[in-house]
Amino acid sequence: MKIKGGYHNRILHVDLTQCKTSVEQVNSEFALKYVGGRGWGARLVWEHMKDDCDPLGPDNIIVIAPGPLSGLYLPASGKTSICSISPTTGIYGDSNIGGMIGVELRQAGFDAIVIHGRSSEMSYLWIDDDDIQLISAAKYQGMGSIETEHQLREDIGDETVKVASIGPAGEKMVKMACISADWGRNAGRTGMGAVLGSKNLKAIAIRGSKDIPVADLPRLVKISDQAYKTLSEHNLFEFWQRQGLMSVIDYANTVGILPTRNFKDTYFDEAEKINGDVMELDYKIGDTACFGCPMACGNVNLVKDGKYAGTVIEGPEYETAAMLGSNLGISDFDAILRGNYLCDEYGIDTITTGSLIGVMIEGYEKGLVSLDDVDGMALQWGDDDNIMDLIRKIAFREGVGDTLADGAYGVIKRWPQLIPIVSHVKGLDQSAYDARVAITMALGYGTSDIGAHHARAWPVAKELEMGEKWDLQEKADLVIYHQTVRPLFDMLGVCRLPWIELGFDENTYAEFYSAATGIEFTLKELLKLSNNIYNLTRAINIRLGMTRSDDKPPQRVFNDPIKTGPHAGKALSREEYENILDIYYQQRGWDNDGIPTDETLIASDLEDVIKYMEPKRKSNEAVKTRK
Amino acid sequence: MRKKLTVIPERCSGCRVCELVCAIAHTGVNNPKKARIKIISLYPHPVIKMPIVCEQCKKPKCRDVCPTDAIVVNDGVVTILEDKCISCHACISACPTGAIFTHEDIDTPFKCDLCGGDPECARACPKKAILYIPEHTLGQSQRLKTALQYAHMQEVEYYEKGVKKKLRYAEVETGGTRGDNNEN
Fold this sequence. Notes:
The complex is a heterodimer of chains A (627) and B (184).
Chain A: E1 10-15, E2 20-25, H1 28-34, H2 38-48, E3 62-66, E4 80-85, E5 92-97, H3 101-107, E6 112-116, E7 123-128, E8 131-136, H4 145-156, E9 162-165, H5 168-171, E10 179-181, E11 185-187, H6 192-198, E12 201-207, H7 217-232, H8 237-243, H9 248-255, H10 276-283, E13 284-288, E14 298-302, E15 312-314, H11 318-323, H12 333-346, H13 350-365, H14 384-396, H15 400-404, H16 407-414, E16 424-425, E17 428-429, H17 439-447, H18 460-466, H19 472-492, H20 497-502, H21 507-517, H22 523-543, H23 556-559, H24 574-588, H25 598-603, H26 610-626
Parallel strand pairs in A: 1-6, 7-12
Antiparallel strand pairs in A: 1-2, 3-4, 3-6, 4-5, 7-8, 9-10, 9-12, 10-11, 13-14, 14-15, 16-17
Helix pairs in contact in A: 2-22, 7-21, 12-14, 17-19, 19-22, 19-24
Chain B: E1 3-7, H1 17-27, E2 38-42, E3 48-52, H2 61-65, E4 71-74, E5 77-80, H3 90-94, E6 101-103, E7 106-110, H4 120-124, E8 130-134, H5 140-150, E9 151-160, E10 163-172
Antiparallel strand pairs in B: 1-8, 2-3, 4-5, 6-7, 9-10
């Protein structure tokens, strides 16, 4: 099939060790089979990976891939996936970022960048259409992300240049380091910033001027005009522009899934002090949107007085407000904004940061760690001074921060007594939705290919709505459906929020893709391709040693019943979880150890993967025989 | 009725839908860099996003500096005549707002033509930050701002069914006409 648009069919390879760049022409088969974004990223990671891969070694690659819809005239087309082997988890990792950076890359004529090797000195990559240079970044070493972006633009002499960068945390290979762009958009999860840091790549600056090819532009315009209209007529559209994801605080607290004091509780009695209304009335000074997005979920906020006066930050959104707010017992919105600002400037993920600081506060409160362990800080819920200090210590790897900077695995390794209170899956801290009220959420976290993140599945709302009307198979199917449809957005390079929040018809994305490429696709066909990628990332993880025992949710969901709020007393049963996991594996076509069967891999167009699964299957058999 | 394309930067989210629809309408390609309107985003001091587009000056400086008389005003629309333009770019430097654009694929500078009376950008802006309004209403938002500045926002807290709520209202300073409360 001949692709007539949607792609430049060009990947930029940058070899930092040899200081060389080359352009790979992508054939149509590769383009269409893996779609783009996360799909291309996962495939490229698979092709370059070694079984003994050191995520922070020069052999690991990192792929920055917008999708075939990125930058096109359609709602919220500004998403880019960043994929690699994650230093946080040691398995496949990806994180997506909004803003403008991926669109600019597409305008420069590339569908993806693959970064190989390691630069001998701190450098930045400057892509000015086809003029590509590696330039010393000595000047920017140690600089925060927001400052780096500002400074690079000034030095290049063009305020419209787009910049993705890492802060000091990325340079120090802190395992929750982000890649930041557009002053506050972050590829936050799975430590992608640490991978860039390990490669001595401080930033990527891009300026592009090219057309992004579209097979049938009049058709795309027709569908998109209607799409923008449909969204703008939704009754929550304006509210969404005003509060964005901050409106979720009230929802999460009402239904009892708001992480509170290190996920001990799911209801925060001071939530009304940190919700969307507070932000909108007292702090908001501006709106921001990613490319092409009518919903403008970004909120720029300013602290007007008090000790954090003058703090300006794009954010928080829900996750940040919950993880740096209720999860740390903080009810002062000034402090949340300050924490958000510090995390963004230093370049660390607010979710993991909030989670691990919560662990330390609870650990100290319960006497599981000593005053010495926490550098003499008598940690307390809501004590923002110590919390700000901890954020800085993590970013600069100082004292206790050096351990926290190694992520959930680092914390557990040093203090095994904390295992019961660290909420993570496969080393990635849980995001801001408690799973004790919904087994689907626990299964979603447990089987997510990157660890405990809601990007793959967010079935909690549906399960709460359906109550006990569903059996386990229906619940497992819901999780699989989520894990298929949600990553499709990351493959196409668009944001899923119009679909999730304003009920935008997901079938339209097949129409967008058909108009862009000139090849007719149905949603069903695209979902099949997305499912193939899920089997591929599963295969990467199996190859890197993951087993069924890693597919478990944070232990708190079984051990600690919720204490307060609408779901007091609720916890999940291990037995039921193992049952639903069995069903989930069956439905996915994976064997009882969670390894995709040969039939499943063949059906997923992944014949070349089969031979890597065989030794793993054999070693599982051997373990069983010994038992 | 003469209409004017005007922008309210405070509303702009920087999504660049205006650039996209403009480029598509004028060049038939998906390329915001070929738009006749451009958003400039600054952060963090100050936080501002501003769509820059031709003001259709009545005495245009771009026309005055053009050495080949390639810029004319046609029915209120400042127009670059491509066949006369030598692409010296003098108009770009002369424009007080930077609303004339260039691109390597396009031979002559280009600018807003109001889409023949129904500007795509104003139609498509999801934040209603770009307006196409009768000329006599210009300045209305500044006048509104003046009025709001004159008012001081006040806040009262009250309880409704045990829940604390806030109500905001404006206490208008009357500048001397209400003698009792006038501190001066």
